[in-house]
Design a protein that fits this description.
This protein has 188 residues and is an all-alpha fold. It is 73% helix and 0% strand.
Length: 188
């Protein structure tokens, strides 16, 4: 029974954290407000989350479905499928706004930066796998650093999200995929 209560408390906390973030943004987010809205004691919050920054990041991330790892047999196909599944993030104005706020806040908050990096590392693990699959198929050079190559895959999409008020069009996504595939030196 205690595990059920613990799981329920965590669900309430994540829902309340997301609600607070949507209303107040990153700068207005407080653990006290999450505790008040969720009805969960602050001591319970810190049993589930190591800090308010972790609660903030996990609250934001909890409302985004996990990204799958496509394996279509081609780098281009995998990146296209990945883009299709992550499109919901690019099209959601609230997520884009919060992501920008987190990126800005993380510059002056080392703890937030550390947690953000860990969560993004997990979230974008499928991108690294896409790169590794392409390397294993001989589609891209085997001597590239998969971590840096995964940054190249993500970069145009992240830059677009940070620099534009509108999500990318299908044509722009196609162009970004083409740039990434060429940039990784994929063999036809």
């Amino acid at each position: 029974m205690a595990r059920q209560r613990s799981a329920l408390a965590k669900e309430k906390l994540l829902a309340a954290a997301a609600e607070v973030l949507l209303e107040t943004g990153v700068n207005g987010f407080t653990v006290d407000e999450v505790a008040r809205r969720s009805g969960v004691a602050k001591t319970t919050i810190y049993r589930h989350f190591e800090s308010g920054q972790e609660l903030l990041i996990k609250g934001m991330d909890s409302h985004i479905a996990p990204f799958p790892t496509p394996n279509t047999g081609s780098l281009r196909g995998d990146i296209e499928i990945f883009c299709e599944t992550t499109e919901v993030v690019h099209r959601n104005q609230n997520i884009r706004r919060l992501f920008s706020e987190v990126m800005a806040a993380a510059k002056s908050d080392p703890e937030l930066a550390r947690i953000k990096a860990a969560v993004l590392g997990e979230r974008f693990g499928p991108v690294r796998t896409i790169v590794e699959l392409a390397m294993a198929r001989g589609e891209i050079p085997a001597d590239i650093n998969p971590e840096f190559a995964s940054y190249l895959v993500q970069a145009p999409f992240m830059a677009h999200m940070m620099l534009n008020s509108e999500p990318p069009t299908d044509d722009e996504i196609g162009q970004m995929v083409e740039f990434v595939v060429r940039g990784l030196g994929a063999r036809p």
